């Protein structure tokens, strides 16, 4: 058994208490939720944590999945399994079920949370790509109040986020638009592995024309990538295979993957192209009435 | 002595021992209740009073000279009882130990580190945390040396010499080995219509057992006695080696292998950690536990494969295979720790001629040292037969593709025929029995082979990539005989003791050790079948050198071929003795008695009989026994196998490749195995299922890779992928039965067949699927990236 180095441990009983503990211990403190990323890093001694604040008792406060007419609010402690199993969520944002089916395995999904996934800021993490393409806002709370950081600004680099000392991600807020849908595709070497590449797309139609579209990718750069140029290309166009091909080619040219054990940069670039086509095709196909 | 009985008249498949336990046949495993209830007793479950814990400091680099080791801060860490360095071991003459291949290996490094993960120092402390934390306080200064990572460059003139510890060693050459007749083979090749050659890489993989390696060493200074609980597949051989290495008298050493959570060859070698734990116990006078963690297991313990092969096959233009020729570059890591019989440095790679009737064959192998973890152990490979089978099965399918012939039919036309057994191969092996064509035809029947080919043709027209792969293999398992096969001078023969209690219950003691194969059931069934005692009434004792007869242990699928024979023969010895006692009980001559499973009856008078239980009571009772019978029904035996057994199989795999992402999905896998007499078909199926998953993992995802600095890139199960239920199809298994003519019950080993046979079927299927791209060769692991690169015409080599 791999054992971590020595650390202190507290269990927070409320969000306010967790923030108070974070303020007191500053940068030496780390929150732990599902623990399926942080604990292995501590055991491998890749992460040196002095002080661990366990927030699993806050599930009642932060474990919600709320579907409102114009917004979806996901509490930071909503577990992967809860996102996977929510029919209401799948009805408005089918991309979550697409992604959650292929994130890790049931044991991890029982514990892992959306907040933990985003805050880990692993460049290969799937939900980051999902939230990026959905134009999500990350609600960050401190003792002085809340601020909302768009997903595109949330990740500052590998394993770095916009969450400061004494702050805590409490909610992910996603706008819901009519005549819209979304899809996610992942290529992995084995079930439960990190993505070789994963791609996420969200499309809004109006009278048979794409009025808005966003694509996001995991594992193609130092952090999750959204490509505004692809959105530009798609906007105002009628959906179709030729358009998807152009979008895929542009996406492939716009990203910057590196070669590693999961695949060569060349292959990953090809996957960006292939999965862009697939996710756009599925997203559009899911908008039942074609947005008319 | 060894007599062959006809296979049971009732097929083992039809017998349900869970209803009426009788012997061979289906039966739930006797050991499973404790496993499924979490009551298994593994090495890490051993907790002794006052027990200390050990952790090992490992080299962060692949090749470096050790300038200094400062342990003062670690020694001052709270809870630390001892810090041991190579220098301290050297003072005791324990810094180096012999490997199973007559090389030497550093226990703790003194002069240099030679692979990343090599043992440098160890800490013994009150608990695991203190031991691990103190490792970070040991200050080692390294003088970094250039590493040898690519085996292809190990013999370059300017390559750094890794093994400068060996007297006069000026290069990285490990050994050369050859088999077969080079001149005769060259002559056949020169005259052949068709010669096809193929480069084949079998990358380094790891057995990755669920339970890592470890031990608890308990030295009693008063008795001078060492008790070692350890994860060992070969407890008796280990005890002898500890006696030779540590200078402890052998009768004062007891090695106990409790329940083992998977071995696959990983638990055959002696690892430095075991020796360090023993030294730790000697130093502190307390029991010392060492359990390596997952990263240590993956980066430092025995790997498998790592063969870079070039094969050539010669044939007539109508597809008669004439000869095979192959050249192998073997990467043995920093120390040659191969676990194989001493006279077989390349294991049984010599059976690379497979199931085919050839005129000639020749193999040459060069083995080299590199700055990688030592080993070259099994991983369910039957001593390198995995590599051999993979090579020949890739070559034969390649030949079929070149000739435009169907790969299954090409094999059917080239198999050794049933009337040719015993069959002497061009490389010196004598196959015992088989009906290879029948086995392949059965696989083709289950698969619906012709329909699959028709479906493939339809799909190809639609641009879909469906592939069908075939692999037919012959295994060689059950080492010895002892005169040819030994491990460091210990002959490969195994003992078995059988004790029958007065009430007719029995205890059978074995030298082999289960790592999950179901020995407690299979061996009870073997004895039960011979004596007519219910397997439920027979206990199997193994894994404790004080309580079992000497033998070489479990690896290379040798338990049933060797100890299974011993168990049957020792039971027959008991039966012979029982006949004499029964003759006195029934007042007839022994020859007038007939054995009817479970009792002796007077020939022609079925009303007069005594059961084995009645005989057992008489053997221990107060009444007179026949002259020359001392009492009891106990017996013992040592079985020295006259030959290996040669199980075989025919595997057919169906894959679909996504043309867009190049992901491979194994849609179907048909495995027909012939392991001779089937003792417990359910256990056989379990072994086959496990081996197929092994094979699928190697074919699609497993590799221990290194970067150019020699850093291991497979140090966790996030990086070293092993397959899950989601990648594995519903295995479709079948069987044929060709008993071994020299085994007492006609059984052959089966533990590794599926691992040996399956990778080639999967790779051949993917190559078949990619035929529209003109692809004729592709190396494992078939990750989506490598498959896609192949489709673009430039696959990245795995090593």
Automatic annotation (TrEMBL), chain A:
* Top-level taxon in the UniProt lineage: Bacteria
Q: Which organism is it from?
A: Actinocatenispora rupis
Keyword vocabulary terms for this entry: FAD, Flavoprotein, Oxidoreductase
Signal peptide bounds: none
Q: Name one GO molecular function term.
A: oxidoreductase activity
Name-wise, this protein is: Carbon monoxide dehydrogenase medium subunit
Keyword Protein biosynthesis applies: no
Q: Which InterPro entries match?
A: CO_DH_flav_C, CO_DH_flav_C_dom_sf, Diverse_Substr_Oxidored, FAD-bd_PCMH, FAD-bd_PCMH-like_sf, FAD-bd_PCMH_sub1, FAD-bd_PCMH_sub2, Mopterin_DH_FAD-bd
Which PROSITE patterns does the record match to this protein?
A: FAD_PCMH (PS51387)
From TrEMBL, chain B:
Record has Oxidoreductase as a keyword: yes
- Gene3D superfamilies of this UniProt entry? Aldehyde oxidase/xanthine dehydrogenase, a/b hammerhead, Aldehyde oxidase/xanthine dehydrogenase, molybdopterin binding domain
Residues forming the Aldehyde oxidase/xanthine dehydrogenase a/b hammerhead domain are 37-146
Q: Please list the cofactors this protein needs.
A: Mo-molybdopterin cytosine dinucleotide
Q: Is Membrane set as a keyword in this record?
A: no
Q: Which UniProt keywords apply?
A: Molybdenum, Oxidoreductase
Question: What Pfam family is a match for this entry?
Answer: Ald_Xan_dh_C
A GO molecular function annotation here is: iron ion binding
Which InterPro entries does this UniProt record tie to the protein?
A: Ald_Oxase/Xan_DH_a/b (IPR000674), Ald_Oxase/Xan_DH_a/b_sf (IPR036856), Ald_Oxase/xanthine_DH-like (IPR016208), AldOxase/xan_DH_MoCoBD1 (IPR008274), AldOxase/xan_DH_MoCoBD2 (IPR046867), AldOxase/xan_DH_Mopterin-bd_sf (IPR037165), CO_Mo_DH_lsu (IPR012780)
**Composition-biased stretches (Basic and acidic residues):** 7-21
The name on file for this protein is: Carbon-monoxide dehydrogenase large subunit
Source species of the chain: Actinocatenispora rupis
